[in-house]
């Protein structure tokens, strides 16, 4: 029973913000196919987040590649979508004072949910930011 509840919660929170229009990959400015990962097959939320990071890093390669993206997330939150440290939130611990502007630029155009605690949104916003700036300088764990 616990597994069903945990998986249901993961499905709801990790896949949130997906729109029907994003189900097919046409271009990076409109569609994010990462929600196609079958969350219900993943027993551990942290493993689901790692899969999401792998998917997003393939779309928006970052300095240091997948190893660096995973290392930063491990250090920042332990891959826990609901991590909170002071004013920071989510997988990559975005400062909430800056989150809305980051989401407006990197998440909203893709139709992603607006919560920093939405794993998919947090990861995609991060990958797009780091891909664009070619730097992990904003992350303490980098």
Explain the overall architecture.
By secondary structure, the protein is mostly helical. 48% of the residues lie in helices and 4% in strands. The chain has helices at residues 2-14, 45-59, 65-77, 96-107, 119-133, and strands at residues 84-85, 88-89, 94-95. It has a three-stranded antiparallel β-sheet. Strand 1 (84-85) and strand 2 form a beta hairpin. Helix 2 runs antiparallel to helix 3. It is globular and about 35 Å long. The termini are far apart.
Residue ranges: pLDDT <50 for 5 or more in a row? 1-30
Shape summary = globular
Strand order of the largest sheet: 1-2-3
Instruction: Please state the structural category.
Output: mainly alpha
Largest β sheet strand count, sense and barrel closure: 3 strands, antiparallel
* SSE arrangement, N to C: HHHEEEHH
Radius of gyration: 14 Å
- Enumerate how many helices there are, as a single number: 5
End-to-end CA span: 38 Å
Helix percentage:
40-55%
The average pLDDT value, as a whole number, equals 80
- Strand coverage percent: under 5%
What's the count of strands? Answer: 3
Please describe the structure with a list of short key phrases separated by commas or semicolons.
single chain; mainly alpha; three-stranded antiparallel sheet; 142 residues; disordered N terminus; 4% strand
